[in-house]
Known about the structure:
The chain has one helix at residues 2-20, and strands at 23-31, 39-48, 52-58, 62-73, 76-82, 85-87, 92-95, 101-107, 116-125, 130-140. It has a single domain (21-140), classed as Immunoglobulin-like. The chain is mostly beta strands. Strands 1, 2, 3, 4, 5, 6, 7, 8, 9 and 10 form a ten-stranded mixed β-sheet that branches. A hairpin with a 2-residue loop joins β4 and β5. The longest helix has 19 residues, at 2-20. It is built from one helix and ten strands; from the N terminus they run αββββββββββ. Copper (II) ion is lined by residues 41, 68, 79, 101, 103. The site of copper (II) ion (CU) has 5 residues, from β8.
Amino acid sequence: MHRNLLSLLLGLTLVAPALADSVKIENAWVRATAPGQKVAGGFMNLTADADMVLVGGSSPISNAFELHFMRMENGVMEMRQMKEILLPRGKTVSLEPGDLHVMFIGLKNQVKPGQKVPMTLIVKGADGKEQKLDIQAEVRKASMH
Ligand SMILES: [Cu+2]
C-alpha cells in the first residue's frame, strides 16, 4: 500500500519537468513574395526553457519546409540547409533575414501582406521526445532591419 503510493508520487515528480519543456515563439513573420515566386523565408525568435532542438516543420502554404542558414562567403551570399537548429536553454535564438531562417519551398500561392501563415514547428527535447508547435506568422513586406 505504502509502496504503491510512493511509486505514484515518484511517477508524478518525473512527469512534471517534462511538461515544463517548451519553446516560446515571438515575432513570427513571413516575407511577402512577388507573383510567381516559389520560395518564402520565415523568421521568429525562439526561447526554450530547456535545451531543445528545432528539427523541422511543415506548412500548408508550401510543398516543403526547410531550416536554412545564410551567410556571406567570399563575397557571395550562400544559403545552406540545416538538419537542426539548437535552442539552448534560456537563450533567445533569432531567425532573421541574412541569417538563420525557415524556408517554404514550392509555394502554392503568392504570400501577401496581411495574410497569416500557419505552420507547425517540430522541436526535440533532451529526452529525444518530439513536440509539435502550431503557430501563425504574420506576412510582412520586408525586414525592419
Ligand atoms: Cu533559405
